[in-house]
Amino acid sequence: MTQAQDPIEVLIVENKPNNLCSLAKMLQREENITVSILADGFDINAECSYQLIIVDQSLSRFDSLGFYHSLKENPKLKNTPVLLLCDLDSLAVLPLSLLSSNLDVLLLPVRKAELLMRVSSLLSLGILLKQKEEKALELDCCKQHRLDLHAQLIASEKSAALGRSVAGFSHELNTPLGLCVTAASYLAESSKQFSQSLSDKSLTTKSVQSYIDSVDETLAIILSSLNRSTEMVENFKLVAVDVSSEKKRSFVLHDYLKRVINSLTPALRKTKHCVEIIGDDLVVDSYPGALSQVITNIVMNAIIHAFEGKEQGTILIRVVHDGSNVHLNCSDNGLGMTTECLAKVFEAYYTTREGQGGSGLGTSIIYKLVTETLQGQISCSSELGVGTMFTITIPVYLAPEPASPANSN
Fold it and tell me: What phi and psi values does residue 389 have, to the nearest 5 degrees?
């Protein structure tokens, strides 16, 4: 038998003294084997870690089936190999449910050589089962860690996208607010000159009319710039709140898509690319924040990848209402993708910009949001030199979320 550094614990369940003594002597002559004897299997110590359990099936008062099931319910012993000792009569009535990968049968009377061979085989099996269990636990931990890491990366990517939107929004907001400051400064200077002329009694009808016209023009510029700023703030606030809150609500699809595209103006203004929204208009009851992130990722993906090296490109979002569903066909006339890239387009961490700032999570996040949050479907088609199209199908009205017990109470 294979020697081990730690002693091997073997439990013998038997109620015949002669059999007990003979079995114990056979096993105890082997190195590193410690034998424990138990007359009633249901009194087994659950804290002990046995490497092998030998049970006499021929015991008249012993329920081996119940004992074996009790082992399976014990976390420390459920994978422990079991050797059943039985005669031909007991073997004939042995329940098939007892047969498993970690159970073996040895016919009585017991021969030492055969007993030691079976014990050695089952001990080796026990080691393999234990290693398998440890590997399974390790694999489960790795899977959970990967899921947690993926969730953290998605949250990080989401925060980064919102951060980029904030930076672009603040830059865009500087333009109308800057005009307001310039116009107000000019108006203050004009009023100062008008007040001076009034004090000097040098005002003329022409100068008064010129001042009035100047005030009207300046106020028109200020009001126009403030209205533009208010519109920008409302658009950004609506999209940003939707992205961060993840709440379901009703919204007009075309109007909301325009707001999302308006929030991307800082990125689009640096290029000559344009985004067009056409098709049916309808009210959708869904998660606008998730939809906003999907459209944002598709548009930014086109700007970064599809239009790389291209001066001017067009992104077309076509809305098609189809009964209880709505289809969003987001196409571009960019570079297109190879067959290999298209096959991996929704895989997490797959990117064609390795080492250039690409996380490989853009389209993976799109797929997760569409299929899970929006409860829809998404597919992608592409042709080199022609362009790429993402086809998104989502329900017009999402089913209400099931109420938690606390809410129902």
Answer: -135, 130
Q: Residue ranges per domain, the chain?
A: 8-110, 142-245, 246-395
Helix axes 253-263, 288-301, angle to 10 degrees: 50
- Residue 273 Cα distances to 49, 69, 265, 270, 330, angstroms: 69, 69, 11, 9, 14
**pLDDT tens-place string over residues 200-249:** 888 788 888 888 888 888 888 888 888 877 776 766 666 665 555 668 88
- pLDDT > 70 in the chain, percent: 69
Q: What is the average pLDDT across 144-161?
A: 71
What's the distance, CA 379 to chain centroid? 18
So what CATH class is 246-395? alpha beta
Cα angle 301-233-396, degrees, rounded to a multiple of 5 = 60
Would you state the pLDDT for residue 285?
93
Are 352 and 341 in contact by the 8 Å Cβ rule? The answer is: yes
What's the angle, vertex CA 169, arms to CA 285 and CA 282, rounded to 5? Answer: 20
Q: Which residues contact 138 (CB under 8 A, 6 or more apart)?
A: none
What was the pLDDT predicted at 8? Answer: 74
Calculate ∠ Cα 203-206-210, nearest 5°: 100
Torsional sign, CA 211, 212, 213, 217: positive
Contact status, residue 329 vs residue 386, Cβ threshold 8 Å = no
3-state secondary structure of 72: helix
The answer to whether the beta carbons of residues 85 and 108 sit under 8 Å apart is yes
Which tens digit of pLDDT belongs to each residue from 303-352?
Answer: 888 888 888 899 999 999 998 999 999 999 998 988 888 888 888 767 76
Q: What end-to-end distance do the CA atoms of the chain give, in Å?
A: 64
In terms of pLDDT, which residue wins out, 2 or 220?
Answer: 220
Proportion of the chain in helix, strand, coil states, percent, rounded to 5: 55, 20, 30
User: Please, are residues 186 and 216 in contact by the beta-carbon 8 Å criterion?
Assistant: no
- Cβ–Cβ < 8 Å for 366, 298: yes
CATH class, 8-110 region: alpha beta
